Amino acid sequence: MDYKRLKFDECKEDVYNIRRKVFIEEQNCPEEMEWDEKEEKDSLYFVAFKGNVAVGCLRLRNIEQNLLKMERVAVLKEFRRRGIATELIREAMLYTQTETSDTSIYAYAQVSALQAYVSLGFTVLSKVWIEDGTFIPHQTIFWGTPVSIEMFLKNQLEKRQEVMKNMMPAIHQFYRKSRLTNKDSRSISFEYLIFII
């Protein structure tokens, strides 16, 4: 198995083929959620090849200074349980250690693959949540120093508080317009909070 680090233009067809089969066909993820041309071009890809056939991939995307997001980890069904995804993740971690300074990685990992990430040193930072439109359980994971984990969590809290601040007027307006009982209002409030957190 060969593992290559590539730019999007160098692996576009291979990456599309793998992700279409894994995420859209197997996992029934909405196609419109899978492709974002800007994100694709802004990412660095790690691709596993068996001969000249691409069988697995992941991407790293720069989110902010010293923080990368690992996304779209996928291996074709017939090549799973051979350590390919684990090796792709190791390659991404090695790149992060050697090619970037003081950089950390976070990801939204599918719960079914969580143990592999933990065995590589990732820390689980969230409870289980369902990704919009997919109905697939995920957890937020992080790889970095304790200080960088603390900074990441603080940043996420600040973002969540800003979302809440911006959403509260709309939620209050919704309550005023509706004729819901207190019990119904509490359940809707809970659903809104789960959605935005």
From TrEMBL:
Superkingdom of the source species: Eukaryota
GO biological process assignments: UDP-N-acetylglucosamine biosynthetic process
Domain N-acetyltransferase stretches: 1-156
Pfam families associated with the record: Acetyltransf_1
GO molecular function, one term: acyltransferase activity, transferring groups other than amino-acyl groups
CDD domains in alphabetical order: NAT_SF
InterPro entries cross-referenced by the UniProt entry: Acyl_CoA_acyltransferase, GNAT_dom
Name of this protein: Glucosamine 6-phosphate N-acetyltransferase
Organism in which the protein naturally occurs: Caenorhabditis tropicalis
Lineage summary: Eukaryota, Metazoa, Ecdysozoa, Nematoda, Chromadorea
